[in-house]
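Listing S7. Sequence submitted for prediction.
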Amino acid sequence: MSRQEVWVKPLRQSLAERAKQSFATRRVPREAMVTLVGGAVRPRSGDVVLARIARLGHHKHIEQPHGRRSVLHEGDLVVLAYADRYATDQFESYVPFSLGPCHMVASGGIASRVRTRSRAVRPATSIVPLGLVGDAMGRPVNVSDFRLEDILVPKERPRTVAVMGTSMNAGKTTTVHHLLHGLARAGARPGATKVTGTGSGNDYWVMLDAGAHMMLDFTDAGLAATFQQPIPVLERAMAQLVGHLAVGGCGVTLMEIADGVFQQENRRLLVSPLVHDLVDTVILAASDAMGAAQGVRTLTEHGFDVCAVSGLMTKSPLAVREAEAALGLPVLGIPELQDPAVVGPIIGLDMSLVHAEPELELPAWPVSLSSLEDDHTADGDERPDDQDHGFPGSELVALDARAGAGSPPREG
């Protein structure tokens, strides 16, 4: 066969059943995966590919559509989506020009060819594409084929709080997570969306676990990743995600914008009139006070209302005091983020959405067995004063909760 030829053949059911489908392709139904397309084909961002794991590297798991992180082995078959990736603490990678060997650069299921990597991580997991996944007519399937229905953002929409950061792993997802959890417990029906980044099941499922009324991300808008995407494409995706949360009955929208303020697409989004129309206020996540000061300055210079800072730096009381002194803004750790009475007025929340939490039932343990206690006392066996028969004391819970709104690097 000539190198210039393109071939199409049926996707054998045995291969399809063996393959582990990734989070980034979760909106693509299995019944749409009918053929394999190969030969002289140049993949596009979002194209779905069936590949074999050739050598394990940094990513040893794959996030699947139902939320499970499946362990990978060499020889496993996986269903991924081609996309570019920008991750300062992992990989810079791009969609290759052919279906030759490349890499799995994210556990959410991204196929790409690595150009540079952080010295903090191992080389990327190597894959061998077996072919693009095609439909019954032999046309390559793209994740954008199964995006959400296009809608207009309602004129009357819930308040939108954007969480931006000074860098990757500054604590943006953790900030949204705990803010959402407190609002959900108070009955405010918070919706969450991640509008830029690389397809990640962890970032998606953690919001649902925290009680999100709805959770959507850019993969729902037809993008496997947003690096290198034209700004009009990103603007359309953001509008669709905010619009669907609005019509879905959310009381407030929490929007995460991935990576740092200086990331190339983010710099252009800062001057987008549509972004300014969609975002009502901003919480900045930062890993230190200096970064927080520069981030707040950059955002305010671009016309954003920054109402508070949070993030990894809140693990350090000293860093919190530095930021408060430099910025004159509230610095929110996890306890403050989870308390609607504290954070609600800061973010401009309609406090009529917040309701008092119902009192919990008394715990089933400890059980008082007075007759046995009397018997022990009668026998001269006194219970030590420091014996604990209940739940942890409130002071222990408070100490545990004082952990800052940041998270360590992970396999993402």
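Caption to Listing S7: primary sequence and predicted structure tokens for the chain studied. The longest helix spans residues 231-247. The CA atoms of residues 235 and 273 lie 10 Å apart.
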